[in-house]
Amino acid sequence: MGDGAHVGPMTHVVFNKPYKVRPETEFIKPPDNYYGRHLPVEPKIPDKMEIWYVQRTDKGYGGVVSRAYGFEDSPDAEALVLGLNRGKEYGAVGIGRQGNFLQWGYSAPPSQMTDAGKKLFINCICYIAQLEGKSPLVRRQGSPREDALRLGAVVNRIKSEDFFSNNFGAELPDDYKNDPNKVTQYYVENFELIYRQFSNHEGGFRVDNELKDLGIPTNRKISTLERLIELLDDQEKSETAEIVLKRYTDFAFETSDQWRQWLDQNRDSIFFSDFGGYKFFVVPEGYLKNK
Amino acid sequence: MKRSFFLHCLALWLFLIIVIIGSCKRETEPESPTKTDLRILYISNPQSARAKDFFDFLSKHFAAVQKGDLKTFRETDSKDFDVTIFDYDGDGFESPRVRISRDFSRPVVTVGVTGAFICDNLSLKTGYL
User: Fold this and answer.
1) Number of C-alpha atoms within 13 angstroms, CB side, residue A180?
2) A and B: number of Cβ contacts within 8 A
3) What are the residues whose beta carbons fall under 8 Å from the beta carbon of A27, sequence distance 6 or more?
4) Which is nearest to A263 in space by CA: A208, A217, A219, A221?
5) Measured between CB atoms, which of A66, A70, A130 is closest to B116?
6) Hey, are the CB atoms on A129 and B107 less than 8 Å from each other?
7) Of A97, A123, B11, B64, which shows the fewest CB atoms inside 10 Å?
8) What value, to the nearest 5°, has the Cα angle with vertex A175 and ends A170 and A180?
9) Which chain A residues contact residue B85 at CB under 8 A?
10) Angle between the A256-266 and A222-231 helix axes, to the nearest 10 degrees?
C-alpha cells in the first residue's frame, strides 16, 4: 500500500473526534489488481473510485493492508479505512481494529502525513484509548470462505504438489486441478455452505452437504441454529443435526430444551465467524458498551 | 418616522455584524483547542529520526509522551500509559519481533509492516496479510 485511501462513510468517531477529518478527494481509475482479484460474489468494481491521501511519500509501497475477507465477521473488528493498494483486493484494510489493537497500515511519520491524515491518526489514538480491556473475541482459526474462490482461481498456476490437496482435496476430484473456472464455480454455487476449520486439516475447503441435506441454505445465520435445534426433536434428522451443531459451536448441551434456552438467552449476542473457525460465538455481556 | 427607520437600519446593521463575526470565528477556531489528556508510550527505535518525528508530533497533541525501545519492550512498560504505539524505522521486515501475550488488553496502535507482524503473531485480523 502507498499513500492513498478509499473514501467511505465518515460517520465513525475516528473521523469526527476530537478532530473533524475533512480530506480532499479525487477520482482515479481503479488499479488493475482490483479487477484481477475481483471475486464473482463481490459487487462490480466501478470505473472510477474516489480516494484521498493519508500521507504524501509519493511511493506506491511501504505500507501494508490486511485482507478484506472475513474482516468484519466478528463485532470486535472494524475496517476503518480501506487502503488504496496495488497488490491485494479492493476492500483490503489500511486502518482497522480488532479488540484493543488498532493497526495503522500506513508507513509515513507525521511530518509526511497530510492534514487529514494527522487528524485521523490522533483520533485513532483517542478512540483506541477507550477500549482498554476489550480483548479480541476471535483469533485466526479458519480461512474465510472467500479464500476458496481466491485460491480456486489460481489452482492451475500454483505448481506445488500439495496446493490442491491441502485446499480442495477433501471436496474435489483431481480433474479439477487444472480448471480454475470449475473450482470457483463449485464454491460460488455453494458459497453459503463453505467451511474450513484449522482444527480439521483434512483437505481444506469443504461444502457442508449435511446441512444441505437438512434443507438449510447457509451455515452462518441465526436461522441455521434455530432450524438445527428444531431438528433435534426429529427422530430421522436429530443425529445429523447434532453433528452439525457440534461443528459450528463449542457448546455441548444434552437436550433440545437446553439448546433452546441458550439460544433464547443469547439470540441478540450471537455471531458467526469464518475467521474464528466457522463457529457461532456469544459476545460477552458489556463488551460492546463503550464502542 | 425617520427615527424609527434609522433604528431599524441600525438594528439590522448590528444583526449582520454579529452574524458575520460569528461565522468568521467559527472558521478560525481551532477544532480541538486543548491537548488531549492521554499518556502515550511510543515504542520504536528511540534513536531514529522517525522516532523524533513521531515524538514531537505526539507531544503537541497529548498530555504525556514517552519513548521506548522495541528491542526491550515488556508488557509491564505499558502499565502507566493509556495507549502504547508500536512502530519501527526502516524496513519493517527487519524490525525486532516484539512478543506480546494474548492476555495483553491495554489499548495499542500498531504501525505499518512492523505493526502487521505483531498482529499476525497474535492471529488477529489486522495481521491477516
Assistant:
1) 13
2) 142
3) A48, A49, A50, A51
4) A221
5) A66
6) yes
7) B11
8) 85
9) 125
10) 160
Q: Residue A143's closest chain B neighbor by CA?
A: B128
Chain A partners within 8 Å of B33 (Cβ): none
How do the pLDDT tens digits run along chain A, 291 residues long?
Answer: 999 999 999 999 999 999 999 999 999 999 999 999 999 999 999 999 999 999 999 898 899 999 999 999 999 999 999 999 999 999 999 999 999 999 999 999 999 999 999 999 999 999 999 999 999 999 999 899 999 999 999 999 998 878 998 999 889 998 999 999 999 999 999 999 999 987 766 679 999 999 999 999 999 999 999 999 999 999 999 999 999 999 999 998 999 999 999 999 999 999 999 999 999 999 999 898 865
CA atoms of B50 and A255, how far apart (whole Å): 60
Q: Annotate A70-102 with three-state secondary structure.
A: CCCCCCCEEEEEEECCCCCCCCCEEEEEECCEE
Whether the CB-CB separation of A21 and A113 falls below 8 Å is answered with: no
Closest listed residue to residue A72, CA positions, set A92, A51, A49? A92
Torsion of CA A166, A167, A173, A176, to 10 degrees: -130
- Residues in CB range of A260: below 8 A, 6 or more apart: A229
Place of cell 455481556: A285
